[in-house]
Amino acid sequence: MAELIKMPRLSDTMEEGTVAAWFKKVGDKVQEGEILAEIETDKATMEFESFYEGTLLYIGIKENETAKVDAPLAIIGDPGEDINSILGDQTNKSEKPNEIEDSEPPKKSSNDSEKTVEKQINDDVHVITMPRLSDTMEEGTVASWFKKVGEEVEEGEILAEIETDKATMEFESFYSGTLLHIGLNEGDSAKVDSLLAILGPSGTEISQYLNSAVKIATEDSQKEELKIEQKTENKIVQEIDTFEKTPETIKSGRIFISPLAKKLANDKNIDISTVQGSGENGRIIKSDIENYKEPAVETVAQPIISSSDKQEFSEVNHSQMRKVIAKRLSESKFTAPHYYLNVELDMSETIAFRKQCNTIPDTKISFNDIIIKACAVALRNNPSVNSQWFDDRIRYNNFVNIGVAVGVDDGLIVPVLKNADKMSVAEISATVKEMAGLARDKKLTPEMMEGSTFTISNLGMFGIESFTSIINPPNSVILSVGAIIQKPVVKQGEIVVGNTMKLTLACDHRVVDGLTGSKFLQALKPLIENPLSMLI
Prior knowledge:
Elements lengths: L2 E4 L9 E7 L6 E2 L4 E6 L4 E5 L4 E6 L6 E3 L3 E6 L6 H8 L18 H6 L1 H5 L4 E4 L9 E7 L6 E2 L4 E6 L4 E5 L4 E6 L6 E3 L3 E6 L6 H30 L13 E2 L2 E2 L3 H9 L18 H5 L29 H16 L2 E9 L1 H10 L9 H15 L5 E4 L2 E4 L5 E3 L1 E3 L2 E3 L2 E2 L7 H16 L13 E5 L18 E15 L2 E15 L5 H16 L7
Parallel strand pairs: 22-26, 26-27
Antiparallel strand pairs: 1-8, 2-4, 2-7, 3-6, 4-5, 6-8, 9-16, 10-12, 10-15, 11-14, 12-13, 14-16, 17-18, 19-28, 20-21, 22-25, 23-24, 27-28
């Protein structure tokens, strides 16, 4: 089934986007999660992933062309599939499917009419939906409201704080009026485009808008679940001619269940083998899990054992950040073939260099700042490591953008130092401090966390001597930095007190071979051990 891909809203203020580059041509195969194009927004140029797999049948916006959000961007489907009906809905059935005419506006479906019902009834009433505040955001959580129902809101005023998968961001109102309704309480999560709030003149009856929003949300949810179920069904079996409807809905040992239903079952700890499916051919669907009741079990009287010990625990729901960390790192660990290279450094000269630098007024650099600068210089001279893996190509970057892992309460985020090889150690120090502060306050913007070509994770300040990290995709390596340890070492045939530090380079073997990774560490080692060499 062909899927229409529209120009995405990649920032909170984005109204239109420009296609900076296409990575696929019409007729090319596209995998789910593969980079389809680069989209230039009002804030940054961002990679846009495909949410579907199939053949690229149509490109609606050429490179360097600009279009409004939700304009037809591409169509992905099966080779030879007829796309005229899809294009007809968008272009009034133009005779040339590869050209989008601007002379006539596309016909609105009944659903489109419902979504603009507030405009038809009262131009002063505005239904505000959950915005898409990052390129990977699928749902958001209301961290806090700055207005209460009944209060006046001015255009440009901060309405709420929204927690995305990457950061907590302030959400401005694009309208003025009275806050008539709040659709999500603080701490509640909802999909992008779900009802967030309603603004309008004081005293306006809003039931019609609520009913319309609920209807649209229900239809969208049903369509999305149907798409997911159809897609999964196609992956599981190509053709089902006969299927025996049994309580377990099992064929060849497999239980047929929709992904959404499976997720709900996992969340509720329900054994899916005990669920009877009501879907087509006995397939387990969402409603089966929601309406599931535990089967009655015979109980045998047991002696009562008294105990004064209470086993207590607390639980918290996954944050958006934690969900995305789990998803991305799991994909990386189980997709990229990791291997690890270790090296031990003599840090004596580095300690002296840092101490001397910090005698300069208003200067306070860390060992991590020196390591970042050394990595930037080494990457500039070793582009094979400054690389990224994509399903159909390897990208060797001519710029050096270093991501620095920062631990926060909800997990781990990676602000990015753009063009780090062109920065001084002092500039790196100031930038890292600023970004770390923004990270802990959840004030990093999406563009501050995009575009890394190399990542550094440093646990040395916590006394960790050595460790391994999971590669941050699509990058091909990540460097783990341990603590500086004072221990006996051999210098010029004598045992003396030395200061050493261990580095571990995790490499994606699809991109970086052992020789390539070793040469990088061989180039990095003298830069860290003798930082003055970077200034020459």
